[in-house]
Amino acid sequence: MTVNNKSSRQNFISNIFLQMLPVMLGVFLGLWANNWNETRQLKKLETKVLQKIKQDIESNRENLTNVIEYHKSLADSANSIFARIDQKLLFKTIYEIEDSKPSFWRGTRTGNLRDAGYQTAIVSGTLADMDFELVSLFSEIDRAQSSYSLMANNYLQKVINQNSDAKVMDYLVFVLSFSQDISITEANLIELYDLALAKM
């Protein structure tokens, strides 16, 4: 009876193992397929986000390339006026001069920079799966773009808040500092964009 009982117990354990094997294999295959699908979806999202970031960078580069020459010419014009203006006029208010608006001034004309791709990458969590150096570069670009926008807004506020007591010298100093600061920042951003485009 013990031999038969032992044999019956082994058959019972073998049957349970054989019945559990397909279940375990099915669970394993299901988990593997789920992980494979998630990885594929994340790669697909990462590709879309990188394409959007690239579009944003290309658009921003074109935008800044279009305005940087204007800003450089502002600096040249302000320097030229400083060199040849009658010293007495420098201390008059802008409104005391007959033609107070200089012909070279066409507003601040700063670029409107896009960052939807980078913000999408942050929100979706795809940055964690991207190349570390590329993510660091994107972060540096985002910081530089924020600084550029803040600088542009600060200068625009100065233009808006300009009072009637502003002297010609104040105006020329403003134009000179604005144009030099903003064109240097634009040149730095363009370099960062070129570096990012080369690495993408």
Description:
The protein has helices spanning 2-84, 87-90, 116-124, 132-160, 168-199. The chain has 200 residues and is mainly alpha-helical. It has one domain (50-199). The mean pLDDT is 85.
Characteristics:
mainly alpha; 5 helices; about 80% helix; rod-shaped; about 200 residues; single chain
Walk me through the topology.
Elements: H1 2-84, H2 87-90, H3 116-124, H4 132-160, H5 168-199
What's the quick description here?
With 200 residues, this protein is mainly alpha-helical. It is built from five helices and no strands. It has one domain.
CA radius of gyration = 33 Å
What's the N-to-C terminus distance?
75 Å
SSE run: HHHHH
Q: Per the principal axes of the C-alpha atoms, what is the gross shape? A: rod-shaped
Structural class by helix and strand composition: mainly alpha
Give the overall pLDDT as a whole number: 85
- Count of spatially separate domains: 1
Beta content = under 5%
Number of alpha- plus pi-helical segments: 5
Weakly predicted, low-confidence segments: none
Number of strands: 0
Summarize the amount of helix as a percent range.
Answer: over 70%
Largest sheet: none
